[in-house]
Design a protein that fits this description.
The chain has 231 residues and is an alpha/beta fold. It has a domain at 2-84 and 154-229: P-loop containing nucleotide triphosphate hydrolases (Rossmann fold), CATH 3.40.50.300. Helices cover 32% and strands 27% of the residues. Helix 6 links the parallel strand 7 and strand 8. The chain starts with a strand and ends with a helix. The structure holds adenosine-5'-triphosphate.
C-alpha cells in the first residue's frame, strides 16, 4: 500500500532520515519504534510532506506522492493524527471534525458514522471549544478529525503519550478496532512496547534515522527492546 524507497529527510543541513526503505502492507498495523530523537516523527512528516525536505521515493497505492502537497496526500487517503494533537484553538469540536471532511474527494460534509460509534461522547460536546476538552478527549477528537477525511491509511504519532490512564485504554481499543473491524491500514509511532505488541502486525525500530531492526511483532524480543529502546 505504501512503499518508501531510499528516503532521506533533512531539516536545513541536518540529515535526520538516512536512505530508509519500508513497505507497509494493506490491512496491517505497522509500528515504528525507537528512542526519543531517532527520527520517528520526521519520517511521518516526510510521508505527509510537512516541513521537512525529503528525497527518495514514496509510493502510495501505486502513485508516487513524494512531490504531492500535503492536502493532496490527504485526499488520496492518508489520515494523520499528529503528536500533540493540534486541535485548532477557538474552533468548536464539530468544526474541528469538519476540517477533516475538507480533505475528502467525494465532497461529503457529513461525519462518518464510525466517528460517533467510536467516540460517542463527542456528540454531547459538539459546540464546545475543542481545546477545552481534556487531553485524552482532544486526542480522540484528533482521531475523529482524521477519520472524517475517510482515510485508507491512518498514521498516528504516539497517540497515548501524556494521556490520563482512564482514557488510554479507550484510545488503544479504538485503534485496534479501526484495523481489525474496519480494515484501516495503520502506521503507529509508539514508545509503549506493550501496546505495540498488542496492536501491530509488524514493526521497525529506528536508530539515528536508520532501520536497526524490523520484522513481525512476534520477533520483537526483549533483547531487541533492551538493545534499541532502553535509556
Ligand atoms: N523542525 C526541526 N528543525 C530542526 N531539527 C529538528 C526539527 N524537528 C526535529 N528535529 C531534530 O530531528 C531529530 C529527530 O526528531 P524527531 O522528532 O523526528 O524524533 P522522534 O524519534 O520522533 O522523537 P520523539 O519520540 O521525541 O518525538 C532530533 O534530533 C530533533 O532535534
Amino acid at each position: 500500500m505504501l512503499k518508501i524507497s531510499h528516503v532521506n529527510a533533512f531539516y536545513g543541513t541536518s540529515h535526520i532520515i538516512h536512505d530508509l526503505d519500508l513497505e507497509i502492507r494493506k490491512g496491517e498495523t505497522f509500528c515504528v519504534l525507537g528512542r526519543n530523537g531517532v527520527g520517528k516523527t520526521t519520517l511521518l512528516r516526510s510521508l505527509l510532506g510537512i516541513g521537512v525536505r525529503t528525497t527518495g521515493s514514496i509510493e502510495f497505492q501505486g502513485h508516487e506522492i513524494d512531490r504531492a502537497l500535503t492536502h493532496d496526500r490527504a485526499r488520496r487517503g492518508i489520515g494523520y493524527v499528529p503528536q500533540g494533537r493540534e486541535i485548532v484553538p477557538g474552533m468548536s469540536v464539530l468544526d474541528n471534525i469538519l476540517l477533516g471532511c475538507n480533505a475528502r474527494t467525494d465532497r461529503k460534509t457529513d461525519v462518518p458514522p464510525l466517528v460517533w460509534s467510536l467516540f460517542p461522547f463527542l456528540k454531547d460536546h459538539l459546540g464546545r471549544r475543542g481545546t477545552n476538552l481534556s487531553g485524552g478527549q482532544q486526542q480522540q477528537l484528533a482521531i475523529a478529525r482524521a477519520l472524517a477525511t475517510d482515510p485508507s491509511l491512518l498514521i498516528l504519532d504516539e497517540p497515548t503519550e501524556g494521556i490520563q490512564p482512564n482514557i488510554v485504554e479507550d484510545i488503544e481499543r479504538a485503534i485496534i478496532a479501526l484495523n481489525r473491524d474496519h480494515g484501516l491500514t495503520i502506521i503507529l509511532v509508539e514508545q509503549k512496547i506493550r501496546f505495540a505488541r498488542t496492536a501491530a502486525h509488524r514493526f521497525a525500530i529506528l536508530e539515528k534515522g536508520r532501520v536497526a531492526a524490523a520484522g513481525p511483532t512476534s520477533e520483537l524480543t526483549h533483547e531487541l527492546v533492551h538493545r534499541h529502546m532502553s535509556l
